[in-house]
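$ run holo --ligand "adenosine-5'-triphosphate" --emit tokens
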Amino acid sequence: MHTAMVGPPLLALEGLGKSFPNGTVALREARLTVHPGSVHGLVGANGAGKSTMIKVIAGAHPPTSGVMRWKGEEVVWRTPGAARKAGVATIMQHVPLAPTLSVLENVFLGAPGPWRLPRARRTEFARLLDRVGYAIDPDAEVAGLAIGERQMVAILQALATGAELVVMDEPTASLAGSERQVVFDVVRRLSAQGTAFLYVSHFLDEVLSLTDRITVLRDGTVVEEGETAGYDEDRLVQAIVGRDLLAAERRGPAAVAPDAPVLLSVRGLSSAAGVRDVSFEARAGEVIGFAGLLGSGRSELLHAVYGADSRARGEVLVDGRRVGRTPRAAVAAGMALVPEDRGAQGLVGTFPIWQNISLPHLPALSSGRALPREAAETERAERAIADLGIVCPGPGALPGELSGGNAQKVVFGKWLYGGARVFMLDEPTAGVDVGAKADILGLVRAFAAGGGAVLMVSSEFEEILAVATRVLVVREGRIVAERAAHETSEEELLMLANGFGEGGARDAA
Ligand SMILES: Nc1ncnc2c1ncn2[C@@H]1O[C@H](COP(=O)(O)OP(=O)(O)OP(=O)(O)O)[C@@H](O)[C@H]1O
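-- output --
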């Protein structure tokens, strides 16, 4: 990392304001200064205005007020194309690549210049790989790539367009440890070559280790800006949420009574989606963490338990009674699943928040015939908004008006306030800020303490250890190891998830 502080900044925003038609003021007199070759962290709670700022920079949202300067010159980018042409590339969390095209074709999709000729392309591709220090087959089809590799294709694509500033929105959100490292290495390497990065992330350890400077947004305004060296995690959390939370997050799991009844039994579950002969039990009050790498089958396992995979074979029992193998039967038996892909499976875009939250519970909330009681539903939504700290104009807001993290909290609220007893969470804190993360983990504990059972999948093993009573390690669709949470460590779980048993021997998975 070398920061060229002499000369004008690469990008400067001054007095930036952005209001939406519904009256929400997302940015107020905000400022940002990014220097060439620097890695600049942008952090803030859910709804603080990070995405809005990025979208203004990327030319996707016109600002309502303020000035933007690029290399010292005042600029107005009315389209993403204009920003890209000037040298800004934006990499969003869900990388929009063309799945049926090859890596090579994707990398040069938006690139200008002479790269239409196959020979020139391959030469340039090799040069780009050399710059990032990463190897990937140019002829591989993108559909077959792991998420980490897709991120790399997006970075190569940004370089191919000649980007001088790469904006990354939560680039590591669904990556496993080793894949994250690859992203960090590339960012460091490219910044040393002069490319600047604006790095948006809720993973504060990443922001602290990777960036040179940090800007903290709260409620649309910049509350702090300074050199990363002047921060530690506690101070950054304070700046983001205005309170100290780490104590709550580190509290550790509660113990389960040895005579607690078995709530959920899973027997010999297998599926074509890669789940292989999985059996386990969950007692009332237990939080079971499923530790596995991306692609280990951990999400498929939850889906199979929930009955969402019609090809799955095996038995699932709640309170000793067999549950039919459909999501409908699962819900009726008291099971709830909060999926990882909340965008596609979580919310109905045309329903206000209150309706989304009560969607799974309509029978319980209805009086007489299928007429929902709006007052009860609104009350439930208001409770969810308060408990989970959902930043929104009110229960009548539409999902599209919410920031990403707040929309996730709504999905969470959907299930939390019903009569569920077995709660399955797939990456429950992905994309939510540190404050909400502590709130959600607190809710998980409260749910278990109230006699429920929780199955939780997370790529963050630290988070699993913070709430789980027991950890099941998933690899290649099987449970390859079981540990009591207080008897294991992040390092051990990572080894096991990677297929290494104790002493470095590969487990016979
Ligand atoms: N299209 C929109 N219409 C109305 N309000 C919006 C719109 N997009 C965002 N907002 C609001 O603007 C504010 C800032 O949202 P933004 O998405 O920038 O937050 P964020 O910091 O990126 O949050 P997260 O960490 O959850 O992604 C929020 O209050 C959000 O509800």
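-- notes --
Residues 177-192 form the longest helix (16 residues).
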